[in-house]
């Protein structure tokens, strides 16, 4: 946790921005796995953690926007619970540690919320238990049901995004810790992975290291010889000599901040010439993107530039053809990189995704593309000093997608479909780093 | 997965037992962690897995109890999803693998459920998203709201408990795999744990091994030098030479079956005489319990016997006094072992806890005790051939509890409170094995 002054200052800023109403930031509860008593590892809500610090279930924060008064709500534990859970600090102590007042029990909070229903401002819920809670307590705010972001306060969402988008030096320091653990995980995986192993042996090594570091994984690791399947969480394949192994894995520091790193290497031998040709294109796209990242540059521009680098590199190999600018405008690069170049990172690996991807990554000057591939870019808007983002270009050969484009003659002027046959079993390569935007450029975290 | 015939036979038995209505067994969905798209590792619902096998989210099984017709419901994925998720078997293929018919899409299931609402029979939901789903689809079954087990069908609960309580040889084999991985985890922890390490370094080693084995942990590991805190998931302490380290951790096999093993050892040196004296009592209680476990014996009897062994052992050390039978009847042993001797284990570490602890662990011949400590015993009833259970006696010195009993003169005739002062910093020792009840006794899994 940061010092109390950090949280006090954040809440003061939020109250100033929101101006009126009761800001309600519930912390997360435990999440049942296979029965109520067997829960997943506790993960605090990131907004609660940003403004209230504590990584403990069943707390809630309220901020009276007009007066700025902050209250922490929760139940103190009984002696019976002490036997099972050990001595725990009282809610009053927890409140003092973040410069807030003790509010009262959760039952009392319940009454307060119901009383002030129309003045309560909250963020979009993403867990079912929270949706149910909000619906029960604030029914009047949901006249048309609980659709996407229904009832959530837009002004509050904006204010939170504005604050959380700009990382302080103490936040960047925590992210560097997460990235360092993540890099250690990747280094160990590369040393350890060998022919004959199963993917989940490598996955276990990685996840164990994240936990040994005092946190956990920031997201489910991708550890696959089928890198062309973008969100592949199957880890049952046996690694063979020469297989490309794509690992997308990041640790979450004890403080909750995420790392998000991807590496791709060959099992038991150096990259073959064919693999290295593709690797170098991806690596070039990554290095160029990082070199070009600075305040005032749109991340959408970096994405398009990376697309051009990828298209041109593949053209050098004879896999694509035609004018690179026209090809990228037509979206031809997306056959090989059907995802975005990167996204914000912070307390969440896709930072603030619960608040709405477009509100976080786009604004009135930069609208999301509707083109296949680029439409998946989470962050398009101008970079600002203090942003922390991922840079993660990739090249994949996805047989089902290639077959479809070929059959439907999509971007047929730019793709040498016949040449791609030799790459149907190639897999995919992605390389990803995390950077902070500085006053004049960027730096690796 | 087991062969299709296993699931067909299980469903046939269930339909026979339940006789009428539409049995509705929804599989689990993904569970959001810090936003909707960042989910916890998927954990299938154990009842769904028992009757439908598949470890895939967003499926549902229905069984027409009268006709026995089984249908698997789910949505096939689109090409766009193939890019992200890879080729997936169709729902029709998944249905065939478990000897069921394809039902239809989830939207179609939704309509069917609403139409047949009053004839739909389901089990108690434990996840909030499932509660919401049931409430929306089967509102007529919840005239008085969604309280504990509201709306769930008692006959179905009984029938499922009856089947799942008796483990087949193929199930016991899977549990042995889970126990073997769990034993490897404990062996590695004992080899690896050393003075200067943090608890979470050992926790990472253990959890990584569970994942490397192809499954995950069956429950959040306890890795603590404060074993007297029974459900202690804080792993931030530094291990020092001579500290007792209590590790309660079990792997879940790829098939979903759980192991649940506890070991306690000293860091960097053998147990001290004082530690060994306590260890031997716990070990004796464990060995005696396993030796006495057989069909027809009540687990409550084993629990009471273990309490007597613990009380008598501590009496030999001068920490307790008086007649052991009277002491156990008064509940004096619970000052040292405030939990139960064990519970059923299977697809859940506390097997079928979602169906109701008392329905699983007690019956008309064995009612749950209301006495502190013994009231926490999850399994009291007569053991039967095919039961799989844990045996986990422990002795803990819990200062807050000792102080309370002393102040309130609880069991003052049986406890030498003054002698306990020398044990305030002792911690706790628990030893736990998993056994299967055989025709004439039991065997270690």
Automatic annotation (TrEMBL), chains A, B:
Keywords carried by this UniProt record: Aminopeptidase, Hydrolase, Manganese, Metal-binding, Metalloprotease, Protease
Range of residues in the leader sequence: none
MF terms (GO), sorted A to Z: aminopeptidase activity
Record keyword Iron-sulfur present: no
Domain of life (superkingdom): Bacteria
UniProt enzyme class: hydrolase
Enzyme Commission numbers on file: 3.4.11.9
Catalytic activity: Release of any N-terminal amino acid, including proline, that is linked to proline, even from a dipeptide or tripeptide
SUPFAM superfamilies: Creatinase/aminopeptidase, Creatinase/prolidase N-terminal domain
Domain Aminopeptidase P N-terminal: 2-131
Cofactor(s) annotated in UniProt: Mn(2+)
SMART domains: AMP_N
Alphabetized PANTHER family for the sequence: XAA-PRO AMINOPEPTIDASE 3
Family to which this protein belongs: Belongs to the peptidase M24B family.
Protein name: Xaa-Pro aminopeptidase
Source organism per UniProt: Neolewinella antarctica
